[in-house]
Amino acid sequence: MNMNRRNGIKVIGAAFICAALPDLARAQAEWPAKHVRFIVPVAPGGSADMLARTLGDRLGKAFGQTFVVDNVSGGGGIIATQTTARAAPDGYTLMLSYSATHSTNPAARKLPYDAVTDFTPIAMIGGTPNVLVVSKGVSATSVKELIALLKANPAKYSYGSAGQGTLTHLAMEQFKETTKTFMVHVPYRGGSPMMADLLGGQTQAAFPSLSTALPHLRGNRIQALAVTSLKRHPALPDVPTLEELGFKGFSGVQWYGVHGPANMPKPIVKRLSDEINKQLNAPDLNEKLVQEAISPMPMTPEQFGEYVKRDMAQWVQLVKARKLEME
What we know:
Number of strands: 11
Structural class: alpha/beta
Strand order of the largest sheet: 2-1-3-10-4-11
CATH architecture of the largest domain: 3-Layer(aba) Sandwich
Oligomer: single chain
Number of helices: 11
């Protein structure tokens, strides 16, 4: 190929790119011009679903387009997360991310996605501690009594989780390792079905987020034994922390945020982030989250991205120390 022809092709290619730039800029400026798919990695019901529907409704009103909540459960959030990673980065596919999808699962399992490079962090919503609970059929009323019960009855009891690799799974495996006890693990497709079987007595214990457990605790349908926060939670002032009971390293936070596919346009990311942080500062939403034991944690996309990296590193260290890796 001669030099003139090669230069001609470069000029034509550059012309196509330049011609496309105004269309791209216009598409970003007009976003959202159609409905936005908001993927939730759990079954309907529970804290994550409530957050997605509440936030989706408010974002829809703010942007003048419908944010369609799409529950894609299974695999501890892997199916939904992989679906998001493969979507076009045009701002029309978002997901409600949480600890399992971008921290604990990546720390404990080999996944078909990279929790950092395959996504665009958009906004942190908030966090809640986890709480060790038992069903009403369990006679233990304290962590000490539960440990004694488990040691006296090896393999008799089971616990539920929101799925393999979720915080509800790793926290209980950490508890079992620390206390040298055993319970059979029963994974579910999210926190809602996990709690349903706990309430029904099919499983005897769980480590749900406080926001998921709180309605059942208020209804006296399950018993709380300890929380993972470093200080007692205002919603459960009479329930001790595992830290004060002498169990170190139980400080996990079940966080919730919003991610999109990698390489989303920065103007769209900024608009979403600014609006979500605005909503989090709205008194009515702030109050609703606090009532659900979720502490609002507004962050910039950059701050959120760094938070996720630090949280994942913490769980990587725990998984290696406790030898909790899973297939």
